[in-house]
Amino acid sequence: MATKKIGIMTTGGDCSGLNTVIQRVVDGCVRRKWRIVGIKDGTDGLYENPAQTIDLSDETFRFASAHLAGSILSNGNAGTTNFEYFARTGKLATFNKRLQKSLKDLDLDAMVLIGGNGSLSLAHLHSEIYSNLQLVCIPKTIDMDVPLTDNTIGFDTAVQQLVSYCDQLLLTARSHHRWFIVQTMGRDCGQLALHAGVAIAADAILIPEIKFDIDNLVKHIKQSKRDYGIIMVSEGISIRGHSGKPADMVSRKLTAANIANRTAFPEHIQRAGDTVATDRILAAGFADTALKAIESGETFVMTTIQNGEYKTISLDEFFKAGKQQKDPHIIGAMTSNAYVEPDNILLQIATDMGIYIGEKRK
Ligand code: F6P
């Protein structure tokens, strides 16, 4: 087997499972006697001259904490990455050239890019950066909004984090006869709220994909046999005529109806937590699939799991399959997004459980 030099980097928001997938890729490279180099801080580190790297090929290299959240390689400066600056100032071509040069200087045969739909879309749209090597992407995000994959690294741990959080809240909710409105992350995709809401049997789940009637929500809570519980609200929902945080909006409506309540914001705890077993298995499956794709000469692909089968699909397929939206944070950037579809089985299960999930698909 010809020896190779592989790069690996984590880009976009962090989540639990990144270290596990990095470790599994490193293990697979070491077994194949390939060199593996970690790029620090995603494209920020790649932009540096010379690129910021750590050699991960040493056979004795093992993270004591491959199951911990965050990324040993880091993901770049929040909100101030070089990429964002160059996009804002219309100089992306300069930025891309610099990344291309760094990759040439590193003399890589392939890059394993672990990113969310933003990073994957960018890699597809700015393919010139990676034109001289094989690019294999691994999808990760707590939002689970990457088209054509049934799961993404970090999602199951984020759901577990929310479940543990809500289990604790329910104890105090019961003591004080009040309701908690828990606002989840997820951007404009409701998967995280929906999964966590079903897992804890929330009383209501509000997600951006489904229209809801706030008066019907209030009625539902009033009709409950309990005087405490959890209303799971995705950060992407809106109520006409109201601005501010969605949980606060719902809280005001409940207060006006004399329903005692508090809001709760688990925030970045959703991206933390020891990586759960299913995320570790997913990390192992994606790492294995990515390395096999490199061996067979594939490029501009991402790993995916569909109906239990691990495989790769082209970034072009990924991009075309989703709803193409303007990136809310990066001027001029487009992302390909997936959402909760009307046939999502959890919508039916939630309804059958008596959970209020709104009125109809938008
Ligand atoms: O995309 C992951 C995510 O955690 C979203 O769910 C959330 O809206 C966003 O990132 C938060 O970003 P930041 O960490 O920059 O506040």
What is shown here, in short?
The chain has helices at 18-32, 42-47, 82-88, 92-106, 117-125, 155-175, 191-199, 214-222, 246-256, 277-295, 315-321, 345-352, and strands at residues 5-10, 35-39, 53-55, 110-115, 134-139, 179-184, 204-206, 210-211, 229-234, 261-264, 301-306, 309-314, 323-326, 334-337, 360-361. With 362 residues, the protein is an alpha/beta fold.
* Strand residue content: 15-25%
CATH fold-level label of the largest domain: Rossmann fold
Largest sheet: 7 strands, mixed
Structural class: alpha/beta
Order of helices and strands: EHEHEHHEHEHEHEEHEHEHEEHEEHE
* Portion in helices: 25-40%
Bound molecules: 6-O-phosphono-beta-D-fructofuranose
CATH architecture of the largest domain: 3-Layer(aba) Sandwich
> Which CATH C-level class of the largest domain is it?
Alpha Beta
Q: How do the strands of the widest beta sheet line up side by side?
A: 3-2-1-4-5-11-12
Tally of separate helices: 12
Q: Residue ranges: pLDDT <50 for 5 or more in a row?
A: none
Shape: elongated
How many beta-strand runs? Answer: 15
Give the end-to-end Cα distance, rounded to a whole number of Å: 53 Å
> How much is the radius of gyration in Å?
22 Å
What is the arithmetic mean of pLDDT?
A: 94
Describe this structure in words.
The protein has 362 residues and is α/β, with parallel strands linked by helices. The protein folds into two domains: 207 residues, Rossmann fold (3-Layer(aba) Sandwich); 134 residues, Phosphofructokinase domain (Rossmann fold, 3-Layer(aba) Sandwich), CATH 3.40.50.460. The chain has twelve helices and 15 strands. Helix 1 runs parallel beside helix 10. The mean pLDDT is 94. The chain binds 6-O-phosphono-beta-D-fructofuranose.
